[in-house]
Automatic annotation (TrEMBL):
Signal peptide: 1-30
Domain Alginate lyase residue range list: 121-340
Gene Ontology cellular component annotations, sorted alphabetically: periplasmic space
Pfam family membership, one: Alginate_lyase
Gene3D superfamilies, sorted: Chondroitin AC/alginate lyase (1.50.10.100)
Top-rank taxon: Bacteria
Protein name as catalogued: Alginate lyase domain-containing protein
Species annotation: Streptomyces liangshanensis
GO function terms (MF aspect): lyase activity
Record-linked InterPro entries: Alginate_lyase_dom (IPR008397), Chondroitin_lyas (IPR008929)
SUPFAM superfamilies with a match to the protein in the record: Chondroitin AC/alginate lyase
Length: 413
């Protein structure tokens, strides 16, 4: 595929970060260093579209049609990914929803009063919606509606210390299911009640933020962006994108940031010691650490959550006509490459990175970002590609990521 202008910007930024061509290939027609620096640093204006595109949360009609055609043709890896999805517990037509009026989620899932049930019912609704789109078997649409109706008739609040994160996790899956059912299938009698649930139970908590670790805020931003699109709420969309554009630079480090990572003003990280502590004790930065995230030295599992949400919001914004790649694309590319390098153990962990040891387990989170950068913009990402292909078909993390080999692998739309 012919690289577009974003690929050219991203390509030269790799050189600026000191990466080798063996890892990331810069297109020949790259921009000057000054142009790249300006593109990466320039703020984007959060601007909701005049009219939202539906379906348009992570997937649009062209993408869904591509998936459907590949599965029907038995093409790989989509057919294997589809079979994996259909065989999962989330696709069961005998599933019974387990809604609660109050979902109480404490730290480390203690207590867990409805937390797993809510997240998994939301993933199941999305799973059923995808199966309906691919097969047009209305039993799956009815099951998705049944799950969404059960929760919209019951839930009133999320409580305890993990309430913001739980709201983000479940709130990232519900609108993906609802977009397909409401805007493609239609004939959903209680869709208004479901809309009210998202507007009153989820959106206020998400927009309030938590000021916690990066993956919390990014997951919450993903959920609020997705819900805003589904509800056609321009104000919520603009608020979400504005927070996103502050949070992403504070989560992924680039050498161009300087001696220390960027911070979120409201967190008052105003000393080197505070920043190092927030970055899990990592005190060495610079070109060799380009792509490091705020949670890399915590573990790759939580890092994966943050990278996944960054990818999802970028993709949803793109489908809504807002190009955020000049601001965020390079950080995403570097984060995927940095984590993938050590996940696949392409090189030893240096002593100045996380004390010479990392906790691997990135999870099934690379497909969306890799497809956007590699398939759509022609950016070579050797380590990310190796990891992505090794993990196919990627399934679900049972929290908010599901079936992305099926939906995004090689998807040109």
């Amino acid at each position: 595929m012919r690289p577009g202008p974003i690929a050219r910007v991203l390509g030269l930024s790799a050189a600026l970060a000191g990466l080798t061509a063996a890892v990331f290939m810069a297109p020949a027609s790259a921009k000057t260093p000054e142009e790249v620096t300006a593109a990466v640093a320039a703020p984007a204006v959060a601007a909701a579209p005049a009219a939202f595109t539906h379906p348009g949360v992570n997937l649009n009609t062209a993408q869904l049609d591509f998936v459907r055609s590949k599965v029907q043709a038995g093409a790989q890896p989509w057919k294997a990914a589809y079979d994996q999805m259909v065989a999962s517990k989330y696709a069961s037509l005998s599933r019974t929803a387990k809604p609660r009026a109050t979902v109480e989620c404490g730290s480390f899932s203690n207590p867990n009063n409805g937390c797993t049930d809510e997240r998994e019912d939301a993933i199941a609704a999305y799973t059923d919606a995808l199966i309906w789109y691919i097969t047009r078997d209305d039993a799956y649409a009815q099951k998705a509606i049944q799950l969404m109706d059960a929760w919209s008739a019951t839930i009133k609040d999320h409580t305890n210390s993990n309430a913001p994160l739980q709201t983000g996790w479940a709130g990232s899956s519900w609108p993906k299911a609802a977009e397909i059912i409401k805007y493609v299938r239609g004939n959903w009698a209680n869709s208004g009640r479901f809309d009210t649930m998202l507007r009153n139970v989820y959106l206020p908590k998400l927009l309030a933020g938590s000021n916690s670790n990066g993956n919390w805020e990014l997951t919450m931003v993903e959920a609020s962006t997705s819900i805003a699109v589904y509800l056609n709420d321009k104000s919520a969309y603009d608020s979400s994108i504005s927070r996103y554009l502050t949070r992403v630079p504070a989560y992924i480090y680039l050498a161009s940031d300087g001696a220390l990572p960027k911070t979120v003003p409201s967190q008052n990280l105003n000393t080197t010691a505070k920043i190092v502590n927030y970055w899990q004790g990592q005190s060495t930065f610079g070109s060799a650490m380009t792509g490091l995230t705020q949670e890399t030295c915590r573990d790759f599992v939580h890092t994966g959550y943050g990278i996944s949400s960054i990818s999802h919001v970028l993709e949803t914004a793109r489908l809504q006509g807002q190009d955020l790649y000049p601001q965020v694309g390079e950080r995403l590319r570097q984060a995927l490459g940095f984590q993938s390098r050590y996940e696949i153990q392409a090189q030893p962990v240096p002593s100045n990175l996380c004390g010479g040891s990392v906790v691997r387990g990135l999870g099934p989170i690379t497909e969306v970002g890799f497809n956007t950068l590699n398939t759509l913009h022609g950016v070579a990402m050797a380590n990310t590609q190796t990891l992505t292909e090794r993990q196919r078909p990627s399934g679900t993390n049972n929290l908010f990521v599901a079936w992305e080999t099926l939906t995004n692998a090689g998807n040109p739309n």
